[in-house]
């Protein structure tokens, strides 16, 4: 490494910093972008090593134009997060082709920092932050490296030095982060990004949810104010689907319905939800939600919560729900018909079955019981890997395969209800959750995705019926892992079986939850709570500014002190300090030692001006010179010198 | 406009600091700091990052922005601290011939246990004349250069010690007003006639010249380097000087009266050339000017004495060469 040229060393630093900044983008960039960037970096390093000439202006211009066109073709846009990032990565690698002067390196470092910001716009979890930090560090080290001027002299370790600077910057950054006023909304419209997350969708086909169940990532976390509701009441309402084409359930496009009023019973449950980004326009709440931030979402006629924009970052909201309620005691005719509609000529055997069963049962309740009993008593199996279904999915499921996941049961049950004249619909959402005793909150994962039915009964209104519970009651009571046969591959089953791994997983999730709450979602509200804890009542922006000023001043004072200590002068040795004391004593009597005056010359002057102290002065000077220059001076000599100076009274 | 502001600033700094006599220890009160072009660009980048993060309501983006902001603030502090406490003293001058830059040596002392990195010294806020790094508890010499046009004196009335370390985002600088002067020798005439024979003084008694090798003698400082017997030295001996017998080696005393030239400056130029050549040839030489005379002698000290006399000749007390 020591035989690297300065140019190579600089280039290596910058390429390393850029690579660290680009790496996290590799997973969402189109392949060719990453490939181009890597190829250009390697070529540039080789060119530096071999001394090849860099391409001329014409070549660079052509390549830049081609890259822009390629991005426009590949992403169908030049703005937006995806296309912008791709463009930034390509431009950085092309800039590398003309990198000679320090200024070029500096431009690259700035681009690298922007790419770091882009990473954080994509994801805000701990891992992303942990990855971005070293990239920022490397880039700063690269900047330090190219801004150096003197080639010789003090050798500096850029990475180490920059690390020390970053450490010193942390308190200042913390003050800025805590007290910088947060905006309630966005300055200008946030462009909707086209990025998709795995999660519940707004339609349900057989097999949809079982795919989702393989995904163990966190959908949202819930912190309850009081004790959490029992597992069988943890139904988190998501999309409500009323339209059926015989195979797939979708939500209705009709919006004109009014929301039937809800009568709440019993005690409410209050809680805070921290929702991971979904790129969809809904919030999840425990059935039945009574209060939620009205500024964030409105409630639809089917009681789900709609947001005006899709959720692209972590959001946090408080809500209050009642697990006992009567929703929609009255049902309007049009509304009723909507929930009875079945596709013409589809699933004929199921419709026929419903008609037969209905004739045998006098009341709606007993009919529902009969259908659930059929699921429970006949050979129906709950499995994650059901066989593929034909076009008439309900018929195929009820009469042929009889193996299904929650979606199959909900779909079949709802169809049977509608065919028998009971208004019904399919509700998607999450059921259950893992309790994290370390953090005292509930983790709801994608694998908790669930589908159930809602039927309307006179006087009881919209009631939840979960046909899955009839087949596999463990699903609702304990969770997926217990409900499924051993042969099914369930995520987290291994994890849940090993107590240690399960505990470690919970601890890690707890860290993530705290990260979300205190860093990612540190909002104006939390800022307010923090200030209130610091003793400010109803803090406004003036107090915020004042606190920021005080905090910054304190941090700066600490910094100044630290720097003063770092740059402290070297402490003179004991002999020099004693001799200095001697000269100070004399200077008080008007005999000043000039900077150029050697101790013996000074002694001569003292002899002339103060013959009375000449003897002591001579002894002190001799001892000092002996301690300084003579070999074999002892500790005793030093003590004698100290004694002499202490006794010296000119 | 910019030049106007700059000269106003210069005058303001000069007024508030006063002249500097003797060594100066840089203190907070005389260190100025401003962002560089790169620093301004960095600021613009931070603002863009801030706006982006606020707009997306992205707290981690804000955290990154604030970390970089804090890094810049720490860098500003470090940049200022890098100068604070450095002691600066004049360390002599290196007189040039007119037309060459005059060098003013400075001694920078770092007493702290931390290194001072990339300290620049310059006359104006331009490219640095010299950049050094000072390890803990150490000294370093740098030179500030000033162009010259004519013989006489140049005065260093103002120079800056500056640093952009670390990152080059800020430039901290201190202004010093030392008033050090440096002599400027007359530019040796390009085609000077050989010194007139009449000007040669008494013929050399030893008669040593360059025709016939007559032996070796011990080296004394002042002996011309081209007469050193390098081969003998390489064989491991001490430094010896070859002596030649034959041609006369006269003692040259150059007189202003006898120097050719249109005016005084031209004559001094010719004399400067003679001095330089005589010194290079290892001949004893001296100069005679109205009111001043330098006795003949040999070596570098003699050359300096003679050139000093030529540079000073006819100068009034008030410096007449003003280039600052």
Task: Characterise this structure.
Chain A is built from 24 helices and 19 strands. Chain A is of the alpha+beta class and 650 residues long. Chain A has three domains: 6-156, no CATH class; 203-496, no CATH class; 574-647, no CATH class. Chain A has a six-stranded antiparallel β-sheet with strand order 9-12-6-2-17-16. Chain A has a five-stranded antiparallel β-sheet with strand order 8-3-15-18-19. In chain A, strand 10 and strand 11 (305-306) form a beta hairpin. In chain A, helix 1 (6-22) runs antiparallel to helix 2. The longest helix of chain A has 26 residues, at 541-566. Residues 189-195 of chain A have low confidence and may be disordered. Chain B is of the alpha+beta class. Chain B folds into two domains: 2-184, no CATH class; 197-312, no CATH class. In chain B, the strands form five sheets. In chain B, strands 2-10-9-5-6 form a five-stranded antiparallel β-sheet. Chain B has a four-stranded antiparallel β-sheet with strand order 1-3-4-7, with no helix packed on it. In chain B, helix 5 links the parallel strand 14 and strand 15. The two termini of chain B are 20 Å apart.
* Total domain modules of chain A: 3
Number of strands of chain B: 16
Number of domains of chain B: 2
Low-confidence stretches of chain A: 189-195
Instruction: Describe the sheet with the most strands of chain A.
Output: 6 strands, antiparallel
The share of residues in helices of chain B is 25-40%
Radius of gyration of chain B: 28 Å
């Amino acid at each position: 490494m020591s035989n690297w040229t300065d140019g190579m060393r600089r280039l290596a630093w910058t390429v390393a910093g850029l690579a660290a900044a680009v790496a996290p983008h590799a997973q969402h960039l189109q392949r060719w972008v990453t490939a181009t960037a890597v190829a250009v970096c390697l070529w540039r390093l080789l060119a530096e090593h071999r001394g090849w000439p860099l391409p001329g202006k014409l070549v660079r211009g052509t390549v830049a134009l081609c890259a822009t066109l390629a991005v426009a073709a590949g992403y169908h846009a030049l703005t937006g997060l995806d296309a912008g990032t791709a463009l930034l990565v390509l431009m950085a690698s092309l800039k590398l082709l003309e990198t000679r002067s320090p200024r070029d390196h500096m431009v690259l470092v700035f681009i690298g920092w922007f790419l770091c910001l882009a990473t954080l716009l994509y994801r805000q979890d701990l891992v992303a932050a942990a990855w971005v930090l070293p990239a920022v560090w490397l880039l700063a080290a690269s900047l330090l490296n190219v801004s150096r001027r003197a080639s010789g002299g003090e050798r500096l370790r850029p990475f180490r030095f920059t690390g020390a600077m970053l450490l010193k910057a942390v308190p200042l950054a913390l003050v800025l982060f805590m007290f910088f006023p947060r905006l309630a909304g966005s300055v200008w419209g946030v462009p909707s990004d086209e990025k998709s997350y795995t999660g519940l969708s707004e339609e349900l086909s057989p097999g949809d949810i079982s795919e989702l169940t393989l995904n163990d990532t966190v959908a949202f976390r819930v912190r309850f104010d009081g004790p959490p509701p029992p597992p069988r009441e943890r139904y988190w309402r998501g999309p409500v689907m009323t339209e059926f084409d015989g195979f797939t359930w979708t939500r209705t496009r009709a919006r004109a319905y009014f929301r039937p009023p809800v009568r709440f019973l019993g005690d409410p449950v209050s809680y805070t939800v921290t929702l991971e980004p979904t790129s969809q326009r809904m919030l999840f709440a425990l059935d039945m939600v009574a209060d939620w931030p009205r500024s964030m979402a409105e409630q639809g006629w089917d009681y789900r919560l709609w947001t005006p924009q899709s959720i692209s970052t972590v959001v946090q909201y408080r809500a209050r729900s009642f697990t006992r309620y009567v929703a929609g005691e009255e049902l309007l005719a049009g509304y009723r018909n909507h929930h009875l509609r079945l596709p013409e000529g589809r699933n004929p055997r199921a419709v026929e079955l419903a008609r037969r069963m209905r004739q045998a049962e006098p009341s709606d309740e007993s009919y529902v019981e009969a259908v659930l009993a059929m699921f429970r008593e006949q050979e129906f199996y709950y499995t994650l890997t059901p066989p593929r279904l034909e076009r008439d999915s309900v018929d195929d499921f009820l009469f042929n395969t009889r193996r299904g996941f929650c979606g199959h049961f909900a779909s079949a049950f709802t169809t049977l209800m509608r065919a028998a004249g009971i208004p019904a619909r399919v509700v998607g959402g999450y059921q259950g959750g893992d309790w994290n005793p370390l953090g005292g909150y509930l983790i709801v994962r994608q694998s908790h995705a669930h589908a159930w039915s809602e039927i309307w009964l006179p006087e009881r209104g919209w009631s939840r019926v979960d046909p899955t519970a009839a087949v596999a009651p463990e699903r609702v009571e304990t969770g997926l892992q217990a409900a499924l046969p051993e042969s099914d591959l369930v995520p987290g089953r291994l994890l849940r079986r090993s107590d240690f791994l399960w505990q470690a997983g919970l601890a890690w999730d707890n860290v993530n939850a705290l990260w979300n709450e205190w860093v990612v979602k540190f909002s104006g509200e939390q800022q307010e709570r923090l200030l209130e804890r610091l003793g400010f009542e109803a803090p406004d922006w003036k107090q915020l500014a004042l606190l920021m000023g005080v905090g910054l001043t304190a941090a700066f004072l600490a910094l100044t002190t630290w720097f003063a200590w770092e740059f402290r002068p070297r402490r003179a040795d004991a002999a020099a300090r004693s001799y200095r004391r001697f000269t100070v004593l004399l200077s008080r009597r008007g005999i000043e030692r000039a900077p150029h005056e050697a101790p013996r010359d000074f002694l001569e002057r003292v002899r002339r001006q103060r013959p009375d102290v000449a003897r002591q002065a001579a002894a002190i000077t001799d001892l000092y010179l002996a301690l300084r220059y003579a070999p074999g001076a002892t500790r005793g000599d030093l003590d004698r010198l100290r004694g002499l100076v202490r006794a010296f009274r000119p | 406009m910019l030049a106007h502001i700059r000269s106003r600033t210069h005058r303001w700094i000069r007024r508030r600091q006063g002249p500097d006599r003797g060594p100066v220890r840089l203190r907070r009160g005389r260190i100025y700091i401003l962002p560089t072009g790169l620093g301004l660009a960095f600021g613009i980048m931070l603002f863009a990052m801030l706006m982006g993060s606020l707009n997306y309501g992205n707290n981690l983006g804000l955290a990154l922005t604030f970390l970089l902001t804090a890094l810049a603030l720490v860098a500003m502090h470090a940049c200022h601290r890098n100068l604070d406490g450095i002691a600066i003293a004049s360390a002599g001058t290196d007189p040039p011939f007119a037309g060459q830059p005059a060098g003013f040596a400075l001694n920078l002392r770092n007493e702290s246990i931390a290194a001072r990195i990339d300290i620049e010294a310059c006359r104006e806020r331009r490219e640095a004349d010299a950049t050094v790094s000072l390890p803990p508890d150490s000294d370093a010499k740098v030179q500030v250069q000033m162009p010259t046009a004519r013989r006489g004196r140049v005065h260093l009335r103002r120079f800056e010690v500056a640093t952009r370390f670390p990152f080059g985002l800020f430039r901290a600088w201190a202004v010093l007003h030392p008033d050090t002067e440096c002599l400027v020798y007359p530019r040796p005439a390009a085609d000077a006639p050989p010194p007139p024979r009449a000007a040669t003084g008494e013929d050399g008694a030893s008669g040593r010249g360059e025709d016939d090798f007559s032996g070796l003698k011990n080296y004394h400082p002042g002996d011309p380097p081209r007469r050193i017997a390098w081969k003998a030295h390489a064989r491991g001996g001490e430094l010896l000087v070859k002596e030649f017998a034959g041609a006369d080696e006269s003692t040259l005393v150059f007189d202003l009266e006898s120097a050719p030239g249109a005016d005084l400056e031209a004559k001094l130029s010719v004399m400067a050339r003679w001095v330089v050549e005589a010194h290079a040839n290892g001949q004893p030489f001296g100069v005679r000017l109205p009111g001043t005379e330098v006795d003949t002698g040999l070596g570098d000290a003699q050359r300096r004495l003679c050139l000093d006399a030529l540079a000073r000749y006819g100068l009034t007390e008030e410096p007449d060469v003003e280039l600052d």
